[in-house]
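Please, structure for the following, as tokens.
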Amino acid sequence: MSDSNHTEAAHSWDTYWKGTGAVGAFSAGGVAHPDIAAFWHDFFASVASRKQSIELLDVATGNGAILETALSILDDEITAYTCVDISEAAIQNIKQRFPGVVGVIADALSIPLEDKRFDLVTSQFGVEYAGMDAIGESARLVANGGQLVLMLHFADGVVHNECQASLEAIEKLQTANFIPLATALFDTGFAAVRGADRLAYDAAGTQLSPAIRVAEDIMTEYGEGVAGDTIARLYSDVGRIHSNLPEYEPDEVLGWLASMERELQAYARRMSSMMGAAITEDAFSDLCGQLTSSGFSLDRSEPLLTTGQASPLAWILVARR
């Protein structure tokens, strides 16, 4: 990923995390799938059985999906926990939810922490956004006898394909100019409510109609849940507001549409960055080779499979120094 694309992706995630607050980690920016939660639950349960004190580092922590699970199982064993993320908003949210956490705002390519310090270094769909070299940076922080535990995006896997569908859906809506045309409709509609001639309002409605059909076609093709149901909510809310236009304040409605435009743009950047972070089989094999040559043994290095899905959910990598 180029420096400019990396910066844009980081900004889009920062915008996202500012809105998550205390929402549950697996439904806020993480991937809501029971097999993902089950992997971390089973892993931390195995760690708990060792009855040893642990210093944990979570890299590209997001909203703390891993930390939330770890503390629910290892609360007595974890002596210290640190979270790293490039997003200041993510770190602020984490520190509010988990007052004992040490939050570090940093790029995963350059983490300002000392070598071989942590018993567990984890990341779920995060460290790879900064590129494959960031995985080596995380490995640097694993203590002797410690473990590097990563869940990584799988190229052409379930999550990758969902991101592609969301990106395609958003791009189709943007190409149809749905939000600019809805803005023109409301702008002229509010003017008509105030007594202006309705000709401009009627013309705006005619111009919006093809974009409405595009939105409907998108939901038929991809499902109403595509892009986190953002498109379905936008379509529904535009229709609801339009049917009761005199009930609404113009500035609030037009401001809302502007914010939805920004949200869709940021969502598209996030989907693009997630797809760009996905790791092929050859790249994963190379990564495993690099870790073993640097002194790690591989406890687990395989796709995370799930019943009923043709493609894997993720790569699982558990390596011990």
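The domain at 3-155+278-320 is CATH 3.40.50.150 (Rossmann fold). The chain has eleven helices and seven strands.
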